Amino acid sequence: MVILLVAALPAPKFSSAVPASDELLHLSSYLESRGVPMNHVGIRRYLKALDQSGHDGKLAKKLIAQLGSDSFSERQSAEKSITASTVVPIELLREAALGEHSEKSFRAKKILDKTLPAEIKIVEKVLRSAELLKVPGITKEVLNSVTRFPNERRIVQLARRVIAVTATPEDINFLSAQMASKTTASVREVSISALRILHEKSLSDRFEFWARNHLLEESIRLEAALALADLGDRRSLSLLLEVMGKWKSPGFRSLSHIALRQLTGQTMDYSAYEEPEVRIKQIAAWKDWITLNGNSAVLNFPLRMEVSKTTDQPTLVAVTNRNCVLLLGKSSEVVWKFPCGYPRFAVRMDNGNILIVEYRRNRVIEVDRNKRIVREIPVKFPVNAQPMDNGNILICGHQGKSVVEVNPAGEVVWDFKPIKRSIGYAIRLDSGNTLLAEKGPRNPMIGEYTVDGTCIWKFVVDTDKSLSSIQPLGKNVLISIAGSAIEVNKKSNEIVWRYDRDGFRNAFRLDNGNTLLYANDCVLELDPTGQERWSKNVNREGREQFSGDDVSYGTVQQ
């Protein structure tokens, strides 16, 4: 269907240096059907129009005022004109929606509900096109997209990638001014990452100032410290050490440790998720080394920015809709494939085998690397299973209506039946307690239960979306919900990390602080700053989808 649609459209005009890839063809057909030409001029013009402080903004104000006109025809005409705009005046509409004029407020909300998701999608496509075509001289225009959607992480990340391949030394003064202005954190984030990529030595003092500025967000301060390390500036050593010791985010602490190891070539251990007293002892070794060698040691800079997987450990992927489980090797190649029936989940066991939950075959199976089934546990509609240290298996069955612990002989030695909600995920903690993700029509809840079923901790997620998985991270818990991953501190119930993306289903935190994700049939790895390290589309690796599956399902593990 897609191939026929693309073939029916006029051939797009690409730069001769850029291959007409499948993705470019798709982007071209999508954008040109919405009035955005797929070329340098069209992309630049669209991004520039996102800043509506000029003539377009005045026209938008006039049309929004007409939404409250006494004339029905004028109200209808204004609504139609705004809806048909290539760039919808979002901020002005939001102001009108919160206003006291009931008719204007009603129509503004109606326009936002109708146009906002589509515009976010267009902006994402335009930015991706700008990245592929390497459109020159668009730094200011790209930042317009971030100013317009500062809380859309996908747009912020795409903007970082676009500027990474298009920024030039001529942009330095503008980007530095953005860091000094009263703009949003997202604009500062994109600006500092661009300045880091430009490797401008004259900015070293500013990088140190930004890294030590406690009024800035941790993500921006870390980017400044890494920029200083990229320049081989020895002041970065103490800054990176400070991050490891005092900063709130364990992901940022881990990334700082990775940078320090790359910069110095030293290999002292450090565990970002350990308690402060443990980290203090580990940091002491680093502090001693920096005191003795920091002023004389040979430094390895700029830091290596991996574009491949950051570990040799294979990545396990359960591609639910495509009926297969995969292992991806160091170069993201498929090194093992097992066809199965709608695998809702897969996890590697200590013995090297893989535990697979076959939802539509009503069983949980253990498979060895020769693809032989060495154990089979019949369970009606299983949704999750976890191997335990004692050799038993913890299983959510009957569409989550029961959680059972099964020993190697197949006997149930522990069971938990929720009274009101179904269980979407269960995992046994080192303490002997069980972490359960309870599903419901709204507001799924994650709870920690003792052996006798007493709940000693809970966290309610304010959403009506489905919950995919949970992963304990010491004192924190990583929770995957359709469209979002959140990391929650169990002591304060505070969200300490969040990632949002259309089509997202599952996340898994790696030991190095990076995060594996499954989204839109794609496996990708993000570092703690939200930068993509590698990705692989696994859509074509399995068999045909089950009929009716129009949503991307899948899980990742390592």
Distance between the termini: 35 Å
Give me the number of helical elements: 16
Tally of strands: 24
How does the helix and strand content classify structurally?
alpha+beta
Description:
This protein is an alpha+beta fold. The chain folds into three domains: about 200 residues, no CATH class; about 100 residues, no CATH class; about 240 residues, 6 Propeller (Neuraminidase), CATH 2.120.10. It is built from 16 helices and 24 strands. The strands form six sheets. A four-stranded antiparallel beta sheet has the order 3-2-1-24, with no helix packed on it. The protein has a four-stranded antiparallel beta sheet with strand order 4-5-6-7, with no helix packed on it. β10 and β11 form a beta hairpin. α10 packs antiparallel against α11 and α13 runs parallel beside α15. About 40% of the residues are buried.
